[in-house]
Amino acid sequence: MKVLLVNPSLNRKRLGNFWRFTTAVPPTGLAYLGAVLERDGFEVRIYDQHALHASNDDLMHLVDTFEPDVVGFSCLTFVMETVADAARRIRQKRPRTKILAGNIHATYFPNDLLENEIADIVIREEGEEAILAVCRGLRDGRDPVDVPGTTCMDGGKIRHNSTPALIDLERLPYPAWNLLEGYSYVPDPLSLTPLRSRAQPLAIQSSRGCPFACTFCSQDTMYKRVRIRTPESVVNEIEYVHATYGTSVFGFIDAIFPLSPKQGHAFADEMIRRKLHEKIVWFTETRVDLVSRDLLKHLKEAGLRFIQYGIESGDDQVLNKLMRKKAEVNEARQALAWTRELGILSFGLFVVGMPGETKAQIETTIRFAKEIDPDIVKFNVAIPFPGSELWERYKHRVNGQPTWKYSGWYNSNMNDADNILAGDSLPSRELMYLQRRAMFEFYTQPKVMKRYFLDGLVPVDVLAEGFYVMVSEMVSSLLPYARATVRPSFA
Fold it and tell me: What sign does the dihedral 274-279-285-288 (CA atoms) show?
């Protein structure tokens, strides 16, 4: 029995020039599903449509040649336009092929996907055990309507099966990276170039879930409770993948790693004990209030080269009243100082346009980003992602808006339509202008241009393209903003 797992492509025309910087990373979730299915004897292929920048015409060519019995889509809200079109085409050409949908969007909107015939079966939350049970049922000629963790049609009615127990992460097989051979996932040139390495990076997951509850995050939709693998288990996997695939660059995909100093020090000790720190490097994302100089120093000794911080804002009121981040500006200032002192590359992630946030507070964030000076920054516009507290607060207004709006880089000028939360922070065009301005002001600072151009942090071709994109986006956002009538989009 053949199973095709698809990582759908983004709709580039909705993003404008910034689609060029939607870096493709190996779809770890699909690699886990593929491993579980392969272990049970299924013939599996993963099609990373996003990494290839491929169209649904390309996907249908693969469907014609591979002839899958099951097609499973990884569903994030922003790609649902692609998924809906692909599902329609598959039904027309191969009506007997079963279509499965999983990930956050499918988990949150199972009824919509079934009623609109986008999926035959929706897999909610974690998918490894559910997809295996569904595919076994189909292989055995049974209609798998009673699989825990799924939603499906049963006798013309929608049936929500019970949620299964949480998966024991230690019992999962390692991701089936063999199913992604042939794809080119090179390190993001804005992050790992100083390593002078073009090795294929692969992901590592040491935990699922997040103990925090930021208002803009939908992490809890997929993972209801935090589970942590032992440091020995994680390092076993790194050692195996390095020996099997030659991987020398690893990236943690946890919401936060390490979650505690104890976890971080134990992991670093294990990496050093096995001398893996001499063979591989790795990067991660964490919070500014969870690091210390001692921890960062130990992690660097164990191979850490690059760290992403969810800094979000330079205003304490925005952080704690609007975002419920439970972190402070001074903690970000200190964490970035330690990181730079220790020679670890840093990436500062910011969010602007929270409901209730003022223009003055956004400008404070722009100044703060320049002050603490991460090596790289990104400013996203606040989005009420389904499953987040923002969504719950505003879903009566924003439910039903086009799925292609659900991006922090949505281009309202190009699509002639306001962003999702227009009017609750600032009008769309003013907010988009501030976002583009933030990027432009940061990257055109002399100290930033020096480390990019003179110190060689970024390749020349990437620099040239990046500055072209920034200038063009700045101009495209400035003119409509200057002409726009400042008004909220909702009554």
Answer: positive
Q: What's the pLDDT tens digit per position in 347-376?
A: 999 999 999 999 999 999 999 999 999 999
pLDDT in tens, 133-162: 999 999 999 999 999 999 999 999 999 999
Question: What is the C-alpha to C-alpha distance for residues 195 and 184, in angstroms, rounded to an integer?
Answer: 18
**Per-residue pLDDT at 99 exceeds 60:** yes
Strand 70-74 with 98-102, pairing? parallel
Q: What is the pLDDT of residues 274-283, one digit of tens each?
A: 999 999 999 9
- How far, in Å, CA of 110 to CA of 387, rounded? 13
Fold classification of 185-382+421-483 (topology level): TIM Barrel (3.20.20)
Q: Rounding to the nearest 10 degrees, give the CA dihedral for residues 319, 320, 323, 329.
A: 20
Query: Strands 43-48 and 2-7, how do they pair?
Result: parallel
Per the DSSP assignment, residues forming a β-bridge with 312 are 350
Q: What local confidence, expressed as pLDDT, does residue 490 receive?
A: 35
The Cα 59–Cα 48 span in angstroms is 10
Residues ≥6 apart with Cβ < 8 Å to 426: 353, 359, 362, 434
Task: Please tell me the distance from the alpha carbon of residue 424 to that of residue 394, in angstroms, as a whole number.
Answer: 10
Alpha-carbon gap, residue 438 to 477, rounded angstroms: 12
What's the pLDDT at 200? Answer: 74
Q: Is the pLDDT assigned to residue 203 strictly greater than 60?
A: yes
- φ/ψ (deg, to 5) at 73: -110, 135
Residue spans of the domains in the chain: they are 2-160, 185-382+421-483
Cα angle 394, 399, 400; round to 5: 155
The overall pTM is greater than 0.90:
yes
With a cut of 70, say whether residue 191 has pLDDT above it: no
Mean pLDDT throughout 100-107? Answer: 96
DSSP state of 154: E
Which residues does residue 464 pair with via DSSP β-bridges, in sequence order?
A: none
C-alpha distances (whole Å) from 227 to each of 163, 263, 295, 326 are: 17, 12, 21, 21
CA 145 to CA 159: how far, in whole Å?
Answer: 8
**CATH numeric code, 2-160:** 3.40.50.280
Asked whether 466 and 18 are in contact (CB, 8 A), the reply is no
Q: Tell me, letter by letter, the H, E, C secondary structure of 403-437.
A: HHHCCCCCCHHHHCCCCCCCCCCCCHHHHHHHHHH
**pLDDT top residue among 196 and 116:** 116
